[in-house]
């Protein structure tokens, strides 16, 4: 999959590697893994991201530094590679700079439906992660170049984007890649997993404690809701970002087909995260609530108040369940 | 590792496969995986366990039935194989029946320090799981015999005994085994992971909600405690078994080196689960509290009351931390 990439990259000298806004493990992991590959192959490399690297991933920037986006520095690059996103608007200022910059934009990504706005793209929808793709880059060029730091970066991205190798995107090839990554990197899985996943705070658990108390089940336990309010955030001194992953709790109750996390925060209306682990299509569901997304994960919005939101979201969910049962 | 096993088993005809008390995923997975292997290789097979198969693993008994231990049936077997335990007392009545039964007892297991009480043993301490060993049995005999049902059973045991492939026992070979298991079994990881892990109840989360509210941090956040009381179980209509895995919550707080779950239930004293994710040896710690176990996981007991237990457990933990810092 990297044949054209490997052939064409030879004519460039200084390369900027940019990862997407609100970076996650796969984004930072692939950025660090690619930057190390580029450096090992004789390129000058700058890695950019405008947002802060999440605390649990900061250790990865010791393997390769990530700078804030800087148009003067970008101008010195003769190629920009965007990782883990398939539309320019996912890369902060990059979209608005494209006209000013006379430089090709390449992309490496695994999300579906890529935009047609890149000069070269390695787009593999359905791959577990962009990090799995970067592993393939090493494998198709010189796998001996895959050493500890890049291996740990790629492993981070693969496990964070697959719920610790549990998602349906994980194939035998993914696991063979991870086996090779562990062997070449010579590290134990727990060394990375603990750094990446064991970074909760006492406050987050106090918030989770309050949120778990709000779980409600509907339609013979097929739909579960959980909510977080502004008062809960204030009481536990937490913010919206501390609710990350909360929706997985109601979703993991036996029999639940879909779950909704409602966030009634200090803003207009109620935001929702919808998740499915069945043939319930939460994308269809969310579209009736001013939102959308994918079949298994979507976001939505309701003007509120909270009680009315729950009533409406359950009424739409019920309709969805009935449709599935009759098809 | 199965050379002698494969050679010697040929002289037997009817084989009983027994798994240990309070069965878990690796225990049932290896029992089902081995029973299918035996049947495919022409043996008559009975699988036994005296305890109920946990609800999230019941689907595995559709692949191979598991009966209650029955001495009359056991007497008809000319070989008994014990899986996922390395001492006879881990197998319910088996220990007391050994004198009465004139039949060899074999063992397949991955725990450390096996007892010397078996006629043949395949003991590989440090292997991720007994299921990984059973995979090797297929691999060393005829891997073509590994089909969907056994593959799903073995996958279940490997992921449940490794925290979803995250523990330090997971090696490149483990991941290559899992890759082969997924390929031959022709299933997606989420199909099993959801059945095995997404089986929480609303009551368990109500209990977790109360327990999370009790988290306390000590010694600059290096030690975390969480507790469950009899009143909490009554309020949420749960039992002791619903606290399974709770200790991982305090353990996953940033900076925590060791965590203690205290259970002040309707019995004498306070039971404790101690877990380490550092060089803190909770086995040493637990030995000062009428208990023991391994470096990273141990159990202990204190006469109570709860407040005094916490005070004592923290005082011992503090001593442990100091010892580590000075060595």
Automatic annotation (TrEMBL), chains A, B:
DHHA1 domain segment(s): 228-308
Q: Which residues form a coiled coil?
A: none
The molecular function terms in GO held by this entry are:
nucleic acid binding
- What start and end residues bound the annotated signal peptide? none
Domain DDH positions: 14-158
Q: Name one Pfam family in it.
A: DHHA1
Q: Which PANTHER family match?
A: BIFUNCTIONAL OLIGORIBONUCLEASE AND PAP PHOSPHATASE NRNA
Q: What is the protein named?
A: Bifunctional oligoribonuclease/PAP phosphatase NrnA
Species this protein is from: Rhodohalobacter barkolensis
């Amino acid at each position: 999959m990297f044949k054209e990439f490997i052939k064409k990259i030879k004519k460039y000298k200084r390369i900027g590697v940019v990862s997407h806004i609100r970076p996650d493990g796969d984004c930072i992991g692939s950025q660090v893994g690619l930057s190390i590959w580029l450096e090992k192959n004789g390129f000058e490399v700058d890695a950019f991201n405008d947002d802060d690297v999440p605390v649990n991933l900061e250790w990865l920037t010791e393997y390769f530094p990530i700078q804030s986006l800087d148009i003067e520095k970008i101008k010195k690059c003769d190629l920009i590679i965007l990782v883990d996103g398939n539309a320019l608007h996912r890369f902060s200022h990059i979209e608005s700079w494209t006209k000013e910059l006379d430089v090709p934009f390449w992309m490496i990504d695994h999300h579906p439906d890529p935009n047609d706005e890149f000069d070269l793209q390695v787009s593999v929808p359905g791959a577990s992660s962009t990090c799995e793709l970067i592993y393939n880059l090493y494998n198709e060029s010189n796998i001996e170049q895959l050493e500890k730091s890049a291996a740990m970066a790629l492993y981070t991205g693969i496990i964070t984007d697959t719920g610790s190798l549990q998602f349906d995107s994980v194939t035998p090839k993914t696991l063979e890649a991870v086996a090779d990554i562990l062997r070449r990197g010579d590290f134990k899985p727990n060394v990375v997993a603990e750094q990446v996943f064991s970074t909760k705070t006492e406050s987050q658990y106090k918030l989770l404690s309050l949120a778990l108390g709000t779980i409600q089940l509907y339609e013979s336990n097929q739909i579960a809701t959980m909510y977080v309010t502004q008062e809960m955030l204030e009481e536990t001194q937490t913010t919206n970002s501390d609710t990350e992953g909360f929706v997985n709790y109601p979703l993991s109750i036996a029999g639940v087909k879909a779950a909704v996390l409602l966030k009634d925060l200090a803003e207009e209306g109620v935001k929702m995260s919808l998740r499915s682990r069945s043939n319930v299509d939460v994308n269809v569901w969310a579209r009736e609530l001013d939102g959308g997304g994918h079949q298994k994960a979507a976001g939505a919005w309701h003007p509120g108040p909270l009680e009315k939101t729950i009533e409406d979201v359950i009424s739409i969910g019920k309709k969805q369940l009935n449709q599935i049962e009759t098809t």
